[in-house]
């Protein structure tokens, strides 16, 4: 069974609280639903060498793939401002959108972006990453 959006948003918010973001103080959490029904959480992990940091969404993907998951149906993203309040409208960055595209059917994959602990907006990956490039582009043409 697939998790409800409210469960994913709650899991994303929990993960955001565990982010390692001492440089931006912008803590982000993601909860990624696999086709199996399992949910994998991720948080942004920053580094003193700034470019080494990773976003919450890609951290969740890496974690899920390491557990053997390669098909995903939805992700929730929630962010916390330095004062601890929810930062509304934290949509995945471009790098994360492309990373999700690798494992998702863009028209079906849902992205829930938290605006508060109990409200979110829903997008499809196709809306956030139109005309996207994906793995099928590298397959030989079918005869
Ligand atoms: N960040 C995420 O983790 N996900 C997003 O969707 C946007 C940005 C992180 C990266 C960096 O650690 C901090 O938020 C500020 O950009």
Strand share of the residues? 15-25%
Query: Regarding quaternary structure, how should these chains be classified?
Result: single chain
Backbone shape = globular
Arrangement of strands in the largest sheet: 2-1-3-4-5
Give the rounded overall mean pLDDT. Answer: 97
Quick one: biggest sheet? 5 strands, mixed
Number of strands: 5
The CATH C-level class name: Alpha Beta
- Counting DSSP H or I runs of 4 or more residues, the number of helices is 4
Structural class given helices, strands, pairing? alpha+beta
**For this structure, what is the CATH homologous superfamily?**
Cytidine Deaminase, domain 2
Bound molecules: tetrahydrodeoxyuridine
Identify low-pLDDT runs: none
Element order, helices and strands? HEEHEHEEH
Q: Radius of gyration, Cα only, in angstroms?
A: 15 Å
**Tally of domains:** 1
Helix content: 25-40%
Q: Return the CATH topology.
A: Cytidine Deaminase, domain 2
Could you please describe the fold and organization of this structure?
The protein has 143 residues and is of the alpha+beta class. It has a single domain, classed as 3-Layer(aba) Sandwich (Cytidine Deaminase, domain 2). Helices cover 25% and strands 24% of the residues. The chain has 4 helices and 5 strands, in the order αββαβαββα. The protein has a 5-stranded mixed sheet. The longest helix has 13 residues, at 5-17. It is globular. The model has no long low-confidence stretch (mean pLDDT 97). Bound molecules: tetrahydrodeoxyuridine. Tetrahydrodeoxyuridine binds at residues 21, 24, 26, 28, 44, 46, 53, 55-57, 77, 90, 92-93, 96.
